[in-house]
Amino acid sequence: xxxxxxxxxxxxxxxxxxxxxxxxxxxxxxxxxxxxxxxxxxxxxxxxxxxxxxxxxxxxxxxxxxxxxxxxxxxxxxxxxxxxxxxxxxxxxxxxxxxxxxxxxxxxxxxxxxxxxxxxxxxxxxxxxxxxxxxxxxxxxxxxxxxxxxxxxxxxxxxxxxxxxxxxxxxxxxxxxxxxxxxxxxxxxxxxxxxxxxxxxxxxxxxxxxxxxxxxxxxxxxxxxxxxxxxxxxxxxxxxxxxxxxxxxxxxxxxxxxxxxxxxxxxxxxxxxxxxxxxxxxxxxxxxxx
Length: 290
Fold this sequence. Notes:
Layout: E1 3-11, E2 20-26, H1 33-43, E3 48-52, E4 61-66, E5 71-72, H2 76-88, E6 95-101, E7 104-110, E8 115-119, E9 124-125, H3 131-137, E10 151-154, E11 158-163, H4 166-171, H5 176-182, E12 187-193, E13 198-205, E14 210-213, H6 217-229, E15 237-245, E16 253-262, E17 265-284
Parallel strand pairs: 2-3, 4-6, 11-12, 13-15
Antiparallel strand pairs: 1-2, 1-17, 3-4, 4-5, 6-7, 7-8, 8-17, 9-10, 10-11, 12-13, 13-14, 15-16, 16-17
């Protein structure tokens, strides 16, 4: 085997050259982790996903997800993109699927029209935390913070959630040194829009080697958890919300989400997105490093 097939797709958009670009690599099941990481560095996108045969009983397929710097147990736009590419390649049929990944077995509902809905893993919501170190990590001052206090939350991948004034979203700039001091690896900076409901968000990922991500499904999932814990979405039942992201990177994105709560606690969250094909090709297999 000297080369592997791949596709480049844009996720969380209905038009090309928007949303979040993703490399989906097929047929890499014989490669070692170092080889997969080398391929992710070569694509140099926020994430590269490897579409693999399932190992677990009941799974439709398996994915491994890499940033240019490290492997992730879970991520949103690779999960959405992998499901749509798998169907286009005839590896699965539209309907209810089960994705195997580092975060476990996750439900994915795939439409016949290039949409996929991902259900996140077990919801985790932390206690309120001090906003000052998070504000410093993104170059903002105390006056820019508004709304409920920050929390760390996630459904397989945890983010710090920092609610700021609308105009402050565009002003945010990652300060890597301040982020390191604050222990910030993944942070969503957003303005909550109650009329949507939803948010205009930016996501910075210094801990994953990605300065800013244009559309982040895992962060959109966790935002619903934060909103329930903060009293901005109902304490019971299912609520819908929308996240708009990527404008500052000239890659506008839309993430349609739900969160289901009981007794003021989020029990499940989903994110839905479209996937637009951009390119296909072959990439050389990196040498084994052992």
